């Protein structure tokens, strides 16, 4: 593959999936872009739009930095396979596309995700007019992400201190 421009990689990677497509990884890029768009429009549709930022922000950061990592591999001349973003299996050092029909673990996880989001959507609709519900959602939006960042930072510091003591 030819060397990829860092400038163009930066701008293409601002939209999840487009950076992968710029790098020539069409399967991975299309799956990533479709997943991003589905997530973006799914939660508001079921009345839980406040979850968008909790899921999409880490997803965006991951795809942004992974695009640059992949571009670096391509620019160093390493072989990068165009495997899907979502549906993949790793056997040893090789990554193969997943056979979804035979992948029972995937379907079990997907089933639980559907059940949890269905219950959350119904609960959301039932409690929508409650003042307590609005206060809870308001506090969740305002304090959840900062609290998650603080907790993550504390965890990283504790983990680093334990590794230094060993």
Task: Summarize the helices and strands and which ones pair or pack.
Layout: H1 6-12, H2 18-22, H3 26-45, H4 51-75, E1 88-91, E2 94-97, H5 104-127, H6 131-165
Antiparallel strand pairs: 1-2
Report on the structure:
By secondary structure, the protein is mainly α. It has a domain at 6-98. It is built from six helices and two strands; from the N terminus they run ααααββαα. It has helices at 6-12, 18-22, 26-45, 51-75, 104-127, 131-165; strands spanning 88-91, 94-97. The chain has a two-stranded antiparallel ribbon with strand order 1-2. It is globular.
Low-confidence stretches: 92-102
Computed over alpha carbons, the radius of gyration is 20 Å
Number of helices, counting only DSSP H or I runs of 4 residues or more: 6
Shape category: globular
Helix share, percent = 55-70%
Helix-strand string: HHHHEEHH
Strand content: under 5%
Q: How many beta-strand elements?
A: 2
Biggest sheet strand order reads 1-2
**First-to-last CA distance:** 44 Å
Largest sheet descriptor: 2 strands, antiparallel
Structural class: mainly alpha
Mean pLDDT: 79
Features:
166 residues, mainly alpha, two-stranded antiparallel ribbon, 6 helices
In short:
With 166 residues, this protein is mainly alpha-helical. The protein has helices at 6-12, 18-22, 26-45, 51-75, 104-127, 131-165; strands at 88-91, 94-97. The termini are far apart.
